[in-house]
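Weekly structure sync, notes
Attendees: PL (lead), two postdocs, one rotation student
Agenda item 3: pending single-chain targets
PL asked that the sequence for the first pending target be pasted directly into the notes so everyone works from the same version. It is reproduced below exactly as submitted, 223 residues in total.
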Amino acid sequence: MSLEVPFFGNTPDNTHCFQAALKMVLKCFRPSEDYSWAALDEITAKVDGLGTFPFAGLAWLQSRGFDVRNVELMDNGRFANEGRSYLVEFFGKDLVAATALPPDLSREQAAAATFVSNVSSETRIPEVDDLRRFLADGYLVICNVNSRTLNERDGYSGHFVVVTSCDAAEVVAHDPGPPPNPNRRVPVALFERAWAYPTERAKNIVAIKPRDVAAPRGLSGRS
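Predicted structure, written out during the meeting:
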């Protein structure tokens, strides 16, 4: 199944890639609805000047009639209970130090607890074949990647993209930027390096579509 996905770029402060991704998903599936940046900031519990944990926004989508499917090895229940110490254990202290996190993660932990209670999850490392399977079943897919690796640069900057297509050679994604890059074509090997940063354990998929469309074949998890 191929979807026509509207594109929205990041804001000048370069902290709204997740909100841009949600805006794309919402405009694709609910074209009559419009969401301002201020509304999306509220929906996603954004902290001014910082990046965004996805939990609040994804739980909101689930409550608004979307089927949200999460696939990642990270144990979000442990993050809800343990906070920063679990992030350091899972991602390593260097990556956590390189990420602009709020000093107090209690709000993000509470959002994670709500997410765990309401959103279907598989705790495993996703693969490129999962991207293809979800897309074939009418989902849009949001992935968090290292944008610096995606742009073949050193260092780390967490970044959300909306994957719209994937074949044996390329992943096509709406990249909010900066710079904004709609329908960006990325070789699969390069996408995987950016997706699996610092290791494959960091790979993640969030697949989203309206709930009245059938779920993908073979996906387990809570409904």
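Discussion points:
- The chain has one domain: 17-210.
- The longest strand covers residues 158-166.
Action: rotation student to compare against the earlier draft before next sync.
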